[in-house]
Amino acid sequence: MRLLAISDLHLANPTNRDALAALPQASDDWLILGGDIAERLDHLEDLFALVAARFAKVLWVPGNHELWTVRHDIEPGDGAGELRGEAKYLRLVELARRHGVLTPEDPYPLWDGPGGPCVVAPLFLLYDYSFRPDHVAFHEVVDWAREESAVCADELLLSPAPHDSREAWCARRCDEAEARLAALDPGLPTVLVNHYPLRHDLVRIPRVPRFSPWCGTKRTEDWHRRFNARVVVYGHLHVRRTDWRDGTRFEEVSLGYPRQWDQEKGLLPYLREILPGPGAA
Ligand SMILES: [Fe+2]
Ligand SMILES: [Fe+2]
After folding, report:
1. pLDDT (tens digit, 9 = 90+) per residue, 122-160?
2. Per-residue pLDDT tens digits for 63-89
3. If phi over 0 gives left and psi between -120 and 50 gives alpha, with beta otherwise, what is residue 179?
4. Per-residue burial over 79-92, b = 16 or more CB atoms within 10 Å of its CB, e = otherwise
5. How far is the CA of 223 from the centre of ligand 1 (A)?
6. Could you tell me the distance, in angstroms and rounded to a whole number, from the CA of residue 185 to the centre of ligand 2?
7. Which residues contact 34 (CB under 8 A, 6 or more apart)?
8. Domains in the chain, ordered, with CATH?
9. CA-CA distances (angstroms) from residue 199 to 23, 205, 215, 225?
10. Ligand index nearest the alpha carbon of residue 214
11. pLDDT surpassing 80 at residue 281
């Protein structure tokens, strides 16, 4: 019985969809899906149905790609238009729940398998551009990133509606998550799961360094200490790695686009063991 994690499956790519065939038929493991699974609701729903049948429990947090407004998500029949912003997020939550998949809106489950007990907290915190260099003013971020073609497509596709801005939505999400985490038993360790890294010093993306403003918020810099995190799980960067800060393990668990992973190996080596984890007996 293991707690496993993977993110950034990007199922718009047929190569990545085909790779899902390698998943086990049945398992008592839990699976964390760390966001950027798919832009299209039908791709996401297919995956939820598949993994819900094959793992004992599945947890999901949204990535920016799930939150994009794309034409496939036009509301049928009622003329309500395209799903955007929080409405799209809530539709995704509904979809997950239909398959028994836990979301950031659900009670945090307790992992009492090997490496536990731990509260596993799926979080949806977004970003607020505070991961920009100190010399770049907030209102200059997009122009600064554009100089090196690093502007995130979210600027066009990720609506913050009904919030005034993505940073306002982020602040709201952080307020809510912070209150829930603060109410947990401080004696119980946690596994924090978020699409974005919780710390600026974990953002190392040499191929697009100016992408950092779209990668998280400095508000969460010390959450691993404040909320007794044994492990923090994230993706988004497409740079798989393991880091340690203050005794907490940080796991970037992206699969990524087909050029970013080895199809010869298949999907299974990319399922990262979160608990019991490396070195466990
Ligand atoms: Fe991604
Ligand atoms: Fe992402």
Report:
1. 999 999 999 999 999 999 999 999 999 999 999 999 999
2. 999 999 987 665 555 544 588 999 999
3. alpha
4. eeeebbbbbbbebb
5. 23
6. 31
7. 5, 6, 7, 8, 61, 63, 193, 194, 195, 233, 234, 235, 253, 254
8. 3-275 (3.60.21.10)
9. 31, 14, 9, 12
10. 2
11. no
CA 27 to chain CA mean position, Å? 22
Residues 166-206 pLDDT 10s: 999 999 999 999 999 999 999 999 999 999 999 999 999 99
Per-residue pLDDT, 75: 58
Residues with beta carbon < 5 A to ion ligand 1?
8, 36
Residue with tokens 């600027």: 155
Residue 66 CA to ligand 2 centre (angstroms): 9
Q: CA–CA separation, 276 vs 281, rounded Å?
A: 8
Ligand 2 centroid–CA 64 distance in Å is 5
Q: What is the average pLDDT value for the chain, to the nearest integer? A: 95
Q: Please state the length of the chain.
A: 281
Alpha carbon of 195 to ligand 2 centroid (Å):
7
Which tokens is 125 given?
A: 């915190």
